[in-house]
């Protein structure tokens, strides 16, 4: 059986949505490759479970997102900045209260995650975005995790050279498009799983994609990232 390579958007604790995407795409945990664009943390309450499901995948490529950076800092140093706890960090803390035994394992994993992945065909995978005026080795880590200009400047962008394609998460496009969106060589994969949207997974060769149910429906009786008393 020929292996396939898939890319998946921001999971944000939506373990049930992750399972649906993997099942609906017939993803093979032993043969296929999954490129995760980061931000498993800070959203719904199954953050630890989502990481553990990803760890079952033999060929996992994981790119660090800004929420992953916050999680890493909390696991390593106990940092709880308000900007984090107000944007889903509280649910992450609650998730690990149920799984204290996983904190060290997940800390070690996040410590070694790259900020981007460039494949043999010059396709770039990054969480936030990239400064196309700079070579890859000169990119600022904050840009790679936090940039939104790659979305904001999509209509004025003429080229993405030297890259064949770029895949990004971070900026939810759910209010603009309910499905993964291509524009000038960039694929926008965050379809709002951390909010009221869905999680999307796509075969990078065929561009066929599969989606979860609306994630807020999968977690009807749970607190979202912003609804803490």
Structure overview:
This protein is of the alpha/beta class and 229 residues long. The protein has a single domain (5-218), classed as Purple Acid Phosphatase, chain A, domain 2 (4-Layer Sandwich), CATH 3.60.21.10. It contains eight helices and ten strands. The protein has helices at 15-24, 47-55, 66-77, 82-97, 103-111, 141-146, 149-152, 215-218, and strands at 5-8, 33-36, 59-62, 116-118, 123-126, 165-168, 181-183, 186-188, 200-203, 209-211. The chain has a five-stranded mixed β-sheet, with helices on one face. A five-stranded mixed β-sheet has the order 4-5-6-8-7, with no helix packed on it. Helix 1 (15-24) runs parallel beside helix 2 and helix 3 (66-77) packs across helix 5 (103-111). The chain is globular, with a radius of gyration of 16 Å. It starts with a strand and ends in an 11-residue tail after the last helix. The mean pLDDT is 95.
Can you say what the CATH homologous superfamily is?
Metallo-dependent phosphatases
Global Rg? 16 Å
Q: Walk across the major sheet and give the strand order.
A: 3-2-1-9-10
Class inferred from helices and paired strands:
alpha/beta
Q: Which percent bin holds the helix content? A: 25-40%
What is the approximate shape? Answer: globular
Helix and strand succession? EHEHEHHHEEHHEEEEEH
CATH topology: Purple Acid Phosphatase, chain A, domain 2
User: Span from first to last CA?
Assistant: 50 Å
